[in-house]
Amino acid sequence: xxxxxxxxxxxxxxxxxxxxxxxxxxxxxxxxxxxxxxxxxxxxxxxxxxxxxxxxxxxxxxxxxxxxxxxxxxxxxxxxxxxxxxxxxxxxxxxxxxxxxxxx
Length: 104
Fold this sequence. Notes:
This protein is of the alpha+beta class. The protein has two domains: 1-35; 39-104, 3-Layer(aba) Sandwich (Ribosomal Protein L9, domain 1), CATH 3.40.5.90. Helices cover 34% and strands 18% of the residues. It is built from three helices and three strands. The chain has helices spanning 2-20, 29-35, 80-88, and strands spanning 50-56, 62-65, 92-99. A three-stranded mixed beta sheet has the order 1-3-2. The chain starts with a helix and ends in a 5-residue tail after the last strand. GO terms for molecular function: 2 iron, 2 sulfur cluster binding; metal ion binding. It comes from Chrysochromulina tobinii. Residues 49-87 form the Iron-binding zinc finger CDGSH type domain. Residues 1-20 form the signal peptide.
């Protein structure tokens, strides 16, 4: 009985989303940017793309990680932030973690 109630509730929520979502979709960039505010709201806004590089002695190689939450290879960056930045006027970029030379 509980399973049926939960299943009906999930179905109702899904139908409400599917039927209601198109009302909020528009092709206007201004309207879209109102629904999707910039990811980066305050850090280094004068820079066209904020990229942070962290060097660690305990790792080998380099990792490039997504900070825009749009990557199809998440958590790795696939440069999806480029399209996001162009469409939304944002400046989010990846986090780069790479090996550092040991301190002498």
